[in-house]
Amino acid sequence: MDLKDILSEDDKLRIIQELVPGRQITLAHVIASPDPILYKKLGLNPEIDFGRSAIGILTISPAETAVIAADIATKTSNVDLSFVDRFSGTLIITGMVADVETSLRAVMDYAEHVLKFTVCAVTKT
């Protein structure tokens, strides 16, 4: 049986979508030595030593946890908080490659062991 058989011409199909956020980090990535155009397109500080710099990206849910992740990241090493969105769960940090990696790993460790989140691997390009 298909929907045409169930609904008459005047009936409307109503679909309800629900977001059920898990406790998880679904993306943790380090972009080492990014092309300067990436900084410009993301609206990040262009006055950077691009040869030694990195961008760290994290996606976390529930989204509000991005605020906690931002706090941990900035307290762990010398990184700049470039973007944090408590509605989407997105965090972007910038700094030297080692500092960005250290900050992301500290966030991952806290999320996994203290908050009991499911976390992905930290990837790097």
Task: Outline the structure in words.
With 125 residues, the chain is α/β, with parallel strands linked by helices. Helices cover 32% and strands 29% of the residues. The protein is built from four helices and six strands. Strands 1, 2, 3, 4, 5 and 6 form a six-stranded mixed sheet that branches. Helix 3 crosses helix 4. It is globular, with a radius of gyration of 19 Å.
What is the strand and helix layout of this fold?
Elements: H1 3-6, E1 24-32, H2 36-42, E2 53-61, H3 65-76, E3 79-85, E4 90-96, H4 97-113, E5 118-119, E6 123-124
Parallel strand pairs: 1-5, 1-6
Antiparallel strand pairs: 1-2, 2-4, 3-4
Helix pairs in contact: 3-4
Order of helices and strands: HEHEHEEHEE
How would you classify the helix and strand content by structural class? alpha/beta
Average pLDDT for all residues:
86
Overall radius of gyration: 19 Å
Summarize the structure in short.
The protein has 125 residues and is α/β, with parallel strands linked by helices.
Which short descriptors sum up this protein?
6 strands; 125 residues; six-stranded mixed sheet; 32% helix; globular; alpha/beta
